[in-house]
Structures are given as C-alpha cells and as structure tokens.
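The material for today's practical consists of a large collection of protein records. There is nothing in a record beyond a sequence line and a structure line. Backbone structure tokens are a discrete shorthand for how the chain folds in space. Nothing more is needed to start thinking about how sequence determines fold. As an example, a complete record with its sequence and its structure tokens follows.
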Amino acid sequence: MSKSVYQKAADDAKTKLDTVSPTFCLAKWNQVSLHLPTGMTNSCYHPPLHNIDAKELEKNPAALHNTKQKLAEREQMLKGKRPAGCSYCWNIEDTGGTSDRIYRSGEPWAIQDFESIVGKPIDSEWTPRYVEVNFNNACNFKCSYCSPQFSTTWGKEIDRYGQYPTSPPHNAPEHFQGRRRPIPHREDNPYVNAFWKWWPKLYQNLKHFRMTGGEPLMDKNTYKVLEYIIDHPKKDLHLNVTSNMCPPDKKLKNKYFDMIKRICLDEHVEHMMQFVSVDAHGPQAEYIRHGLDWNYFTDTVEEFLYRIPVRNSVTFIITYNNLSVTTLDKLLNYIRELRQKYSTTYQRVWFDIPLLRQPAWQQITLLPESYQKIHEDNILMMQKPAEGYGAYKDFEIQKMLRNLAYWRKNFNADAKQKNNFYAFFNEHDRRRGTSFEKTFPEMQEFWQECKNA
C-alpha cells in the first residue's frame, strides 16, 4: 500500500525534527489549547493543563500561550529531553508507533515555521498557528469521563450528590476550588478579556481556530467569533468547532447553522470543520455521554451536511474508552454510510480516535485481552476495499493499529481499577436512572469481574 500524503508529511517531518533533537515537537510552539473558565492551558490536548499567570496577561496577552512552563518544556525538547507531560506521545513512540508529535509537526500550519522556531526558540511573544479555545464550561451533557471543569451539568450533580465512591474519590467538590473552579460566565473573566485583546493579532496569524467547550453552541463568544469572521473574511483560515450536536435550544442551533452557512457559501474561510463528539453507537453512546439523544444527534449531523453542502466537513471525535469497544463497528459503519451519502466531489466525513487517559478505570487497557479481538476485527473490516469515498484511509487504519499496540503493551487488569469501574458505574446508575447491565449486556462477564474485584 502506497503512503498517503498525510503519512509522507509525517515521515518528512520526523526527518526534519531529528536534525534538532529526537524529542522536538513543533506543536509546543505553534499549537495551544486555552481553557479560559479556569485560566489553564496546554499545547495540544494530550499534556495535563497548567495555570496561566493572570498578572503576566496584564502586560502581555500572548502569555495565554507562552507560559513559563511551556518555555521550559520547549528548552527541554531542544536539548533532546522528554517533558513529562507529553507522555502520551512517548508511550506511542516506545511501542514503535508514529505519535501525534510527528503527525502534528508534519501538518502545514506547524512545519511552515520550522526555520523561524529553530532560529528563535524561546520567545514569550510567539503567536501560534493552531488555537483551540474553551470560553465557557456551560454544557448540557454529563459524559462519564468528564468533570465540573468542563460541564455545568456535571457541576450541578456534584453539588447535589457529592463525589463518586471511587479510590481516590472522583470529582470531589473540594477538588474544584481555587484555580480549578470555573469562573461563571456572568462574572468578569481576566482570561477571556486577555483573549479578546490578543484576538486581532492572533487572528492575522491563524491557520486553524477551534472552539470547544463545554458546548460552544451555548456560549455567546462562539457567535462573537463567527460575527468577526463574517466581518473580516480570512481566506486561509480553517475554522473548527467541536459540538455534542444535541444543543438544548433549537433556536441556537438554527442561528449557528445560518452563520456557518453564510461563512461557507460566501467563502469567508478556506474550510470549516465540524467536529462531532461521540464514542460509541446508539444506547451505548447515550450511556457514555449522558444527555445525548442518538436520534436527535444523527438528525443534527445530517442536517448540517445537507444544509451546508460546500466548504466544510464533519469529523467524528471518538474518545476511545472501554465502553466504546463493543459497538465501534456500528459507529464506523454509520460513518461510512454518511461518507457515501454526502461525499460527492471530496471526502466530507472523517473520524479521529484518540485514547482516553483519565479516569484510569475507563481506559481500554483494563478490559480482558479477549476484547482486543473485537478491535482487530474492526481493523480487518476497515482494510477491506470499498468504492469511492467509503474506503477508510491508511492513516485512519494506522491510528487503530497504534491504539491496539498501546493496548497490548499496557494491558493491566488492575483489581483496584476494576473496583473503581464498578463503584463509579454502579453509582452512575443510581444517580442517573441508567442500567449498565441492560445497556451493555455483552459486557456482563467483565461487569461481574469488576463487582467481585
């Protein structure tokens, strides 16, 4: 099988990166995730979040990205050292796989500044090309692996019932105090204020801009950004929005679709990517992402693809966890059906499948090894030829293969985490009126193992 353009770019990037050091990553400079409700940041979404210094923002709004911690990590990378927070990629590379450090660095928005970054590596004013921002933690979902930091609905549950009875206690209220307490959207937020001060300069440099949440369709800043783009077209911008596609207010959904349609049809950006968060299929998806209505979800996805037929795509973000495995085949087939229905002149439907890292009891590595066979069968299904846009890309298959390699290397049937699995989902069912055993009958044996752990 010949390599895709995507894989060739990654291979070329690795060759280039290795001329600097074996741990060099352009995303540490050119990419940033901003979690403005708590004033925290990381480079890509893999490393743990760390604090932004609000005092630094008063004189330099670019300190939203160029924190002291990131400057230190950049220096480590230049010296060939591995920053501890980047363990996701080191683990992938240690299994012989191609990590996101390589893939990300090979993308045009990252590699274009290779010489500039090498020439001026430690720069507190560095303006990134890829920005992901969470303005608000307002969300109508309570996803099993989420927390009050990213969901107001989770926050309400914890306020009512308290922590989950895991070891250590999960989502304990005292954990979300101080810097971890999201600033309510009605209060003045110095991090959001700094963002809008930085925005005109940032916008000029942007190649990719992604809004996440919470749920972006529930936040006023989302529509402020869209209005800015309508008033200031940027022909080289890739606009990205991550949504659960089940907005509680259908009027907001229509407002959002109307603005995106105008941006796409009037060619205000190069491309618009609608990221869609879903981790399984049908009732299992509803269980993992509590608040999701599968039928409403699929109707909204298809409405987007139908109403806005040009200059956009949909990417399903499958946060791969141990509740995803048994219905992944159905989800992949649904994605293939959408590809065949809505891709006519170019591929409009994609998926990514990053591994869930926390909480530990929801990692795929906790599952019995027999579940790996399900994953292997999905890879074989993906490798079968298909007509037109229905075929899976080699880099999509590679991501499935690297997840399998990680699973095999890090398999850990830890009794403590099995106990946590049962404790969490047993309490989940009690609080939310759900039933793990009815929703996942195929996992009955594993459930009993966890119950008896």
Summary: Residues 5-133 form one domain. Residues 164 and 424 are 6 Å apart (CA to CA). The chain has a mean pLDDT of 95.
